[in-house]
From TrEMBL, chains A, B, C, D:
Domain Adenylosuccinate lyase C-terminal: 354-434
Keyword terms, alphabetized: Lyase, Purine biosynthesis
Gene3D superfamilies: Fumarase/aspartase (C-terminal domain), Fumarase/aspartase (Central domain), Fumarase/aspartase (N-terminal domain)
Reaction(s) the record says it catalyses: N(6)-(1,2-dicarboxyethyl)-AMP = fumarate + AMP; (2S)-2-[5-amino-1-(5-phospho-beta-D-ribosyl)imidazole-4-carboxamido]succinate = 5-amino-1-(5-phospho-beta-D-ribosyl)imidazole-4-carboxamide + fumarate
Name listed for the protein in its UniProt record: Adenylosuccinate lyase
Gene Ontology, cellular component aspect: cytosol
E.C. number: 4.3.2.2
MF term (GO), any: (S)-2-(5-amino-1-(5-phospho-D-ribosyl)imidazole-4-carboxamido) succinate lyase (fumarate-forming) activity
Length: 438, 438, 438, 438
């Protein structure tokens, strides 16, 4: 997590102020539950809320850090500091709980907070993609397979495809959020030996979590693995959009361009440069998030009821994966929203191959006119290769090819060269993706 | 995919016989739809089913391979061979379709077939885990954090925890199966220029798939990425179970043992060895499946409407990940079902630390008896460290500690040393995991 | 390892015939050493060579497999079959050795054999790159950063850069080969309790290996990890070359093209297509090899003196990584050797930006003529942006810009537009890479 | 890079103060070279050193950051600030160079600085391992394969094995350091169009680097990939040592223990706990470093002469991988140096299996006494299985087995039960690893 690639709302989730606030809520709600059970005095629970419910300021955080240097234990440092506010009844705080009850439930809250921000990022991206998709729904452009001109699509279809992909990512993230949103307050090895399961249910409800069915001091790590794996998929989708834009911006294509503000310098050495640096950056950020999936998967097989090897991993990838993805999604949304589109270039590229993009339609027409598929393929390829080698335009050549003309006639050949033929189902596809055609 | 780690049902999904069968069904159903639309003669569709609907034998597969050596194109080789059976009306097969329509829809069918087998594997594992969990529900054993004795759990809780984890994995796999189960018959760049969307819907319905909302010659690869990422999570859970068994079987612990058949040799050099080789093997297989996640993620960002770099990756990880996981899940099920459990060793280990496992309960009792948490911690640790250093049993030491006795009294101290205290909520947890307590 | 992506020489290394041959040699050389030590009769060692030194035919392999079904142990099956040839003195074979002595030393031999093939593949690639580099040394072409035209380079420089990279890869692979080429015959836990270290030295020498300084039944897996990590780096370099070619072949650039044989079909649907499918394939194969690095790294931390979790991983990635890389390197060599280069397109692209590629030189000239860098940058950018927006050619605009002209004069401006200025050090660079300029 | 897992010397390498210092040196040395070539006035080069050669204080860093907010370009911000110190002759700074010349050469310097620290960390670890190895050279302990008792080794052999592994890692890192230590000052696309190669050679020499043979604005990323892959191997070796210690510390084994200071608290809930938290932490840190290998490999295939997708990856993994590895190596050294070793427990475990560890030796003796290997194996296994099932000690059983006694006699059987037999070659192995036996 480095400032250059962080946004404040996501970064704040991982700051000590937020963490301690969540710890406080867990402990205070647990006290309420313990008081209801009669395990601790009601006055103690009340004291915790009345005297302890204050913001965790930078000063308090620093003080807790000081205490931790002595105790070498973060949760003990926290409760020690809290006791300074609450007074003698503080001894009832944390009764029957183990540190992991606090740490793991806190992580669950942080990850759901992070997931909510990411879901909102995706909503922003979806909105931008939808707007641009409808704006460009009918802007016919070259479709390319293998980087080679194939048949026409529309710019809008590209945006719509990304929209469909991010709808899926939204669903996946919502599922991953649910997977991670559990609360464990079950004691040293998860048996509730020293604490009633009611405490867990109570805290879970107050924090918007569900009780973990079976914890073993810790929440099982397959949940976190699934969460980070899902972020890895989203990062890869992001890279797909970024790669498309980078391709379309390259000098020879230049159908789109990242917005370039008037004063911006593209290169210290070459003043003419306007580079797709934002989408290149997103490509790199995607690699980073993807690189965190395997460590998260390796965290699953902890020893027996738990070991603590996952902890250092999560201290790093918890913030890094969510902050990086948040930043990258916001940047991508911005790129999409402001992407400059060049209709002239799009049209020029569409016409570049002299009509070759209609080759399949000609092939089908010849088949329907009675030629075998094999013969038709040969006839089309024969003319296509001439165009490819710069020896004429496809339509002209076909009209000079006796075998082709004898099957179709000149007028019918010309009628095949029609962009509308390719875009006639765009509305259908938009209906599928957006539930509306315009 | 190597025979040693393959089971026939899963391997068969990836054999040419199954692949060509699926291709045939795609093409034949597509012909039906085209005939309904009036694009091709009804007689042609009928001929395909009546003359072409035959098993793909080894001979036919070999013949198709021969043809491919000439055409250098697998789908063309396939339709060429099919034409030999169907006769002249075969020219209506594959009309308006592109190879990827067949290949990608086929892959979707294969992956759903594979997912169904894997779901059934998980069901088998869940059944074995549930049976063993209830058998050992009340077998108290040592719970360990950091590999160090903590407090008692039961063997049944271990099985129950794995059951809960594989319930989650089942849900994740079901979601991933749904994600992957789409059909694309949309032509060269996904615009339906040469084929009506009705063909896609028809084939999808017949094959138990849903139509892909927006394909671009191919089905978007975020779906496959999610599928393989999910397999990676399941593999990691499998490793967790395997690791637990390996730990419990090590000579110094030896609470459980993989079933060892009478004639089996553990080591060519050391005749006394009985090694947890099955769970070690599963550990390695988990690494393999996990290693396929990143290539699947890297497949997402294909160029423009598609490039073919994903293909070689999927040719390998499609079979390898599913076959390996299927084999490993079956092996794990077998290990769990036949695991030998040694109650004597379990009890011996439970008592190894001279009662230290009750330390927290003593701590809590002291707190409730009025000591500050800090003083209580010191009193307990003082005695615990003596036990740890081999200077007596915990109960005896506590009863000789004036400060402790003054707060609790000897009888109350003894009453704290009670296993039932730790297992009293096992039923509650079983209820959560299995919906029943016995 | 699938036939489609395998070449016979590399595949053969991993077949049982080769494996058993290596096992035989290890056992037979070990017998020689044991005989020299007087541990076994000299006649026994002689008998092994005289009666056992026969090719491992398919029949023998099948017979060994039959025996293994009974013994459930591969090395015992092997020695049992060998005993059928050698007779009663076969009981002296494998004395004091453990299976891993045979298995791990065999793997070392196989990996060095594989490394030798890969080194030879790289030599082939280097030769092709060198030839193409000198052929195109002076073919000026557009250099691109961020996919955007920057300043001129030459096609030869591209090849030379790949050559330099594969020289480094050759060195890395040679180091990795050395790392992996050790022999361990040290017994059940590596202590030589039952076998003299002389046996290890003797076998090592005969097989071209060095004795493993400290083995623990097995050769430590950091060696294998380094080997596979090195393959991952090589795969990534391969992907770099493949990506460059894919970019240069895309329709709008089309400066190069993979060789396309006359009868080849690019697309079943679009007869005009000529796709860079070989380099796309190499891109996917690179992902596969890279995906095997992490499992190899995870194999390092085996438990105590050894566990067997690494075995299944190596059974798969040993063949898969080497066979795939061998195939891909050969394919890449073929692509490079036969790459079609289009000088016209190269020139057209070079001129596409109307001279903008000289912008930096103009900037420098203005600075040298006394303008501040900031002012010069503004002057150049002002004109560059006009060109970028299609409002003229760069040279013309500069000659109409009073500020620029006042500093440089028209003639001097024109003189700056000189390709030779950019290529003047190509010879120097070739000297560095190839040790010769022509 | 989070403070908890950072050490100041390594962290400092990645701080702006160090970065700007390196940038200054690159620019200043480049000015010297340009002055020698007569490209810029000698007075300018002199001015840079005399007026600009001052420490980069926090104030200067902040000021550069301010400028960058306007210029949106880091190198321009840097040279702008430098100009404020140097005066008008500052316009000669950076002539003919491109930002990457500075950035990439700086990264090379930072990575070599980091490598030097890591090499020194490894030296520290090697020293600790060597000391502990000789201390415990003859402390016989159980060797374990598959977690099951096998035959005796010594504690010293374990340390020696790790020493040998880290010797190899030292060599690998030295090679990776050399790979990364190159200087590129070659201009916008690496052609030296605007700058003489002499500048590069001069700066390289002054900074202890070698000139990059062929750069393309940037240094090729296979170098960095190899560097990070090497760190991944080292991290995995570290995990191996950590895993061994975690195993040996588990309660049932407890042969060693991480040093536990008097006031330390192992658990807030269970006062008796002494957990191997340092080696667990190292295990997690190893996962993190390993997770950075794949992003580094994905950075290799940049587009054409360069794109900037690698940059964000390196901004994160550059510091994170080196800082984390440095911290973990130092922590591991500390763990090894202070590891508490329990000879009593080691001996107890060694005797746990009632002499089964001598089974192979008995097997060999029987073979040498004329039994077939198969019969001998059966005889040994028959008795071994009784021991395993708790029905007696191995020596007693063998002496009651008529077949065994008839071949060996009682006295000879007893003589086989000798620890010295297993440790007789420890000196030989130490000689190989350390070049000395004591």
């Amino acid at each position: 997590m480095i400032p250059r690639y962080s946004r404040p709302d996501m970064a704040r989730i991982w700051e000590p102020e937020n963490k301690f606030r969540i710890w406080f809520e867990i402990e205070a709600h647990a006290c309420d539950a313990q008081a209801k059970l009669g395990v601790i005095p009601a006055s103690a629970a009340k004291a915790v809320w009345e005297k302890g419910n204050k913001p965790y300021t930078a000063e308090r955080v620093a003080h807790i850090d000081e205490i931790e240097k002595v105790t070498k234990h973060d949760v003990i440092a926290f409760t020690t500091e809290l006791a300074e506010h609450v007074g003698p009844e503080a001894r009832f705080i944390h009764q029957g709980m183990t540190s992991s009850d606090v740490l793991d439930t806190c992580l669950a809250v942080q990850l759901t907070q992070a997931a909510d921000l990411l879901l909102s990022d995706i909503d922003g991206l979806l909105a931008a993609l939808e707007r641009r998709a409808f704006e460009t729904r009918d802007v016919a452009c070259m479709g390319r397979s293998h980087g080679i001109h194939a048949e026409p699509v529309t710019i809008g279809l590209k945006f719509a495809g990304f929209h469909a992909e991010f709808q899926r990512n939204r669903e996946r993230l919502a599922a991953a959020r649910k997977d991670i949103a559990t609360c464990a307050i079950s004691g040293a090895v998860g048996t509730f030996a020293n604490i009633d399961p009611f405490v867990e249910s109570h805290v879970a409800e107050k924090l918007g979590l569900t009780p973990e069915p079976l914890s073993t001091q810790i929440i099982p790590r397959d949940r976190h693995a699934m969460f980070f794996a899902t972020l890895g998929v989203i990062a890869s989708s992001m890279e797909r959009v970024a790669t498309e834009i980078r391709h379309l911006q390259r000098t020879e294509v230049r159908e789109v361009e990242e917005y370039f503000s008037p004063g911006q310098k593209g290169s210290s050495a070459m003043p003419h440069k306007r580079n797709p640096v934002l989408t290149e950056n997103i490509t790199g950020l995607a690699r980073l998030v993807r690189g965190m999936v395997t460590p998260a998967l390796e965290n699953v097989a902890l020893w027996h009821e738990r070991d603590i090897s996952h902890s250092s991993v999560e201290r790093m990838i918890g913030p890094d994966a969510t902050v990086t993805l948040d930043f990258a999604l916001a940047r991508l949304t911005n790129v999409v929203a402001n992407l400059v589109i060049y209709p002239d270039a799009i049209l020029r590229n569409l016409n570049q191959l002299g009509g070759l993009i209609f080759s399949q339609r000609v092939l089908l027409a010849l088949t329907q006119a009675g030629m075998s598929r094999e013969d038709a393929y040969k006839a089309v390829q024969r003319n296509a290769m001439q165009v490819w080698n710069g020896q004429g335009r496809f339509l002209d050549l076909l009209k000079s090819d006796d075998e082709v003309v004898s099957h179709l006639g000149s007028a019918a050949i010309e009628a095949l060269f029609d962009l509308g033929y390719h875009t006639k189902h765009v509305g259908t596809i938009f209906q599928r993706v957006f539930g509306r055609q315009e």
